[in-house]
């Protein structure tokens, strides 16, 4: 036994901590130390956020950005809001928006014609007009079956729906009692559209027929009220 009042000896003579009446303390969690202080970087936190978002190929959640930069989430969200406002206040060709699950850079809507010309010029993987029309019907009238979409468009849409599904823009969301598969848009669709909710779609739905009035085609049963 030693003179240390915070230790004692067990029957085998080994020293063990004495009971001081205080609850045992858990060891401090390991800290993932950063190799940098974001405040020491040129431009500080805002410049760091710009750099990360510039290389991101999908929206990044503010929580993840906070982890990467070693800052509180609230601070990161304030900086993101400030950046977004800064871009809006100037004639920029891009803007920072919260869409889907996080933040991402998007081209400015004012530059839509220029961007469309660049994207469509010589691009072979763009969606066809038929695919765009089919996607619009699914977006505004989901959940819908292929037969219901065909009833709106007046043509068979099986191959088009398969193409949209392969690109991750539409997904299966259920089935009708008849067994027909119901389709809806995916989170990726919202991301590509720069939206967080289907409520942000332009008011086009009133010009489409109601689901109850659509007659099924291609072997699917009629759907009526």
TrEMBL record:
It comes from the Bacteria. GO terms for biological process: cell division; chromosome separation. Keywords: Cell cycle, Cell division, Chromosome partition, Cytoplasm. The keyword Membrane does not apply. Residues 1-28 are annotated as: Disordered. InterPro entries: ScpB_csome_segregation (IPR005234), WH-like_DNA-bd_sf (IPR036388), WH_DNA-bd_sf (IPR036390). It holds the Pfam family SMC_ScpB. This is Transcriptional regulator. The lineage of its organism: Bacteria, Bacillati, Actinomycetota, Actinomycetes, Micrococcales.
């Amino acid at each position: 036994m030693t003179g240390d009042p915070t230790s004692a000896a067990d029957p085998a003579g080994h020293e063990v901590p004495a009971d001081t009446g205080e609850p045992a303390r858990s060891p401090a969690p390991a800290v993932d130390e950063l190799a940098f202080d974001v405040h020491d970087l040129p431009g500080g936190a805002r410049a760091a956020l710009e750099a990360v978002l510039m290389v991101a190929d999908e929206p990044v959640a503010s929580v993840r950005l906070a982890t990467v930069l070693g800052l509180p989430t609230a601070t990161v969200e304030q900086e993101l809001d400030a950046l977004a406002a800064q871009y809006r206040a100037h004639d920029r060709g891009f803007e920072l928006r919260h869409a889907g699950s996080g933040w991402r850079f998007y081209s400015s809507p004012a530059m839509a014609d220029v961007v469309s010309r660049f994207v469509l010029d010589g691009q072979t993987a763009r969606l066809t007009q038929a695919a765009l029309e089919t996607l619009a019907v699914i977006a505004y009238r989901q959940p819908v079956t292929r037969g219901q979409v065909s009833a709106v468009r007046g043509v068979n849409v099986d191959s088009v729906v398969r193409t949209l599904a392969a690109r991750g823009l539409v997904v299966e969301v259920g089935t009708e009692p008849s067994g027909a598969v119901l389709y809806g848009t995916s989170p990726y669709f919202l991301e590509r559209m720069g939206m967080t909710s289907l409520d942000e779609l332009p008011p086009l739905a009133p010009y489409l027929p109601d689901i109850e009035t659509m007659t099924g085609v291609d072997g699917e049963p009629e759907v009526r009220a």
